[in-house]
Amino acid sequence: MKRSSSSGAAPWSPSRAFRTLRPWLLLALAASPPYLMAQDVAPDALTAQMQQVRELATSGQRQLAIKRYTALLAEHPGNSDLLLARGRTYAWDGQYDAAEGDLRTVVQNNPGYADAWSALGDLYRWSNHPQQAADAYSHWVELAPQDAAARIARGRALRDAGQFAAARTDFDAAAARGADAGEVASLQQSLLPRITSPDSTTVDGYRWGATASWDHTGFSGSRQDWNDADLSLRRYFSRGSLALELLRADHFGSSNTAWALDGYVPLWSRAYANVRYQHGPSNGVLPQQAWRMEAFQGVGRGWELSASIDHLHFSSDTDFYGIGVGRYVGNWYARYKLQYVPGVGSGSWSQRLVVRNYYRGDADDYLELSISSGRSTDVARFGSVVRNSNAAIGIAWAHYFSPHWGFKLGAGYANDDGGYDERRLWLALYSRW
pTM above 0.85? Predict the structure, then answer.
């Protein structure tokens, strides 16, 4: 028979004693100094190693960092964090193919890894693949819909791809999610078309555009008036455009026609080119052949540089070489261009300044002032004449009165060195669909 205690209490046991003492032990631990408590968990060894290697990469020792990441991957094969880190470092070093391999592996194995999609988008944007960058950033946006940085990143890529309306939507969304107001304003301004290249990209999803223009020049004295007309049909692509033009010039009582192809092509990030070829009559007021190439490069915040070559062939050849610089400030845009014609002595230089105000804050409506002097100030106008003006001034108003229809109306005056005063009027009608 079991012996009971004289007091009648339950028999002692270790588990019962621990339950009795546990509250007191917890209070004692809570009151103990930090050094008496369990030490903070030391950083994971791999995390610490990755931090050391990242410091190598960000300090410029990218090749060494890549070797260290590769060694760690041999110990931890398939680790997404290591592949992401090495992929980013490859991209920083310009090794885009290797970077794509690492980052693609990460997103395929872990499609919910937002940082990996962000890094993949950066890679494609840096390597001048804006549409692929936008696609990668779209995954980032889906995974982090309230992240303003994701919207800005995709907006930049869409802008580089020529999808201005979609880019504007992303920039607006970033502003609504707390992005810096000044940064968003600068990005929105970057969507305004360059003054020399309104046809370089599609406008708000339109794929076709047509223009009909008429230009009249009256002269002082007995010199006959000039009349010029132009019809063009332009096809816009996701990046760039191509137009077929029919031109007619009536000068000195003689009329000629010509046709031309005028295209805009993307080059690399924030760069594109205008390439044009015109074919005219064997002799007359229009050149037999004319071609031009002008390249544009965006730099900094709101700046654009350009360089151009124009070639006209009548009975002999004339070449024009130009450089230009443009700048946005708010809704204002100004561009200065200097041109040189070899072999014509003191009349070989021309200068042109154009200032625009986008008074409604969009890309369609603006007021324009132009001032110029020197040889070939209006070589872009039909490529038909080589002129030398002492001074010229012009004003113009462009306005879209509906989403599909617009016009540009202008007037100008020039004092030609041949002793004639010129008075110009021009009108252009625009349609897009």
Answer: no
